[in-house]
Specification:
The protein is of the alpha+beta class and 264 residues long. It has 2 domains: 46 residues, Uridine Diphospho-n-acetylenolpyruvylglucosamine Reductase, domain 2 (2-Layer Sandwich); 206 residues, Uridine Diphospho-n-acetylenolpyruvylglucosamine Reductase, domain 3, CATH 3.30.465.10. It is built from 11 helices and 14 strands. The radius of gyration is 18 Å and the shape is globular.
């Protein structure tokens, strides 16, 4: 048996303090990844700091085109927000297709972003939207935040508080889900905003989420699905497993990018 000390934080400051004071602490948000990992004995934190009751980490704020979403906001809340859907329907649609209803009502945006699973949906959205990830100590641009598979710029003991971004003029997400897990075998978020076009891909790369410079260039000249016809996606660097080899995923990247562009 592994001994774990459970703490229920009442504020972000208390959570950060409890985390920094633990020998090997872990934040418990929705628990959709951490709890199964602990049950499989792949993780055994000395302390669990539960932040599910911290009100300041929840909620969606929309002011004009500026959007801020608290780290503890659930996927279901993102999906059902009328305010968010009015300015960024692509993100609301993305959240509505994560896992199943049980996962969507427990899993959180901050937990997903912090975990940076290579097949998770939110990292593609954050990267394509040029989001800023705010922690308890600093602000990190999405381009700098996602470093590689399951690896982010978060320091030990650092906690995501919220994410913010400017809603794009056009934006949408399309994914090809694994029929069993509903994780993305390939998901592409396309966004056109004041800063140009950004295209982010999840589920397909062997090192996690990434941007496609070739697709961004093509869509910058002509924001239409057929503008991607001439773009070649190399299988090099693509994930290859029992669900699909690298060439299959390379093809999916182009197909999903065209669908996302058409939807946007």
């Amino acid at each position: 048996m592994h001994n774990t000390t459970y703490h229920k934080a009442s504020s972000a400051a208390e959570a950060a303090s409890l985390l920094s004071g633990a020998d090997d602490g872990a934040l418990l948000a929705g628990g959709q990844t951490l709890i199964p990992t602990m049950k499989q004995r792949l993780a055994a934190p000395s302390d669990l700091v539960d932040i599910s009751g911290v009100a300041e980490l929840k909620g969606i704020s929309v002011s004009g085109s500026s959007v801020t979403i608290g780290a503890m906001t659930t996927h279901a809340e993102v999906a059902s927000s009328a305010e968010l859907r009015a300015v960024c329907p692509g993100l609301a649609d993305l959240a509505g297709h994560i896992g199943d209803p049980a996962v969507r009502h427990r899993g959180t945006l901050g937990g997903s972003v912090a975990n940076n699973d290579p097949a998770a949906d939110y990292p593609a959205a954050m990267l394509a939207l040029g989001a800023t990830i705010k922690t308890n100590t600093r602000e990190i641009a999405a381009d700098d935040f996602f470093q590689s598979m399951f690896t982010t710029a978060l320091d030990e003991g650092e906690m995501i508080v919220s994410v913010s971004f400017e809603a794009p003029e056009k934006g949408a997400y399309a994914k090809f889900p694994n029929p069993a897990s509903r994780y993305a075998m390939c998901g592409v978020f396309v966004a056109k905003g004041a800063g140009g076009v950004r295209v982010a891909v999840t589920g397909a790369g062997d090192d996690g989420v990434f941007r496609s410079a070739d697709m961004e260039a093509a869509l910058s000249s002509n924001f239409a699905a057929d503008a991607l016809d001439g773009v070649t996606v190399s299988p090099n660097g693509m994930l290859s497993d029992i669900h699909g080899d690298a060439a299959y995923r390379a093809n999916l990247v182009k197909v999903m990018a065209k669908r996302a562009t058409a939807a946007a």
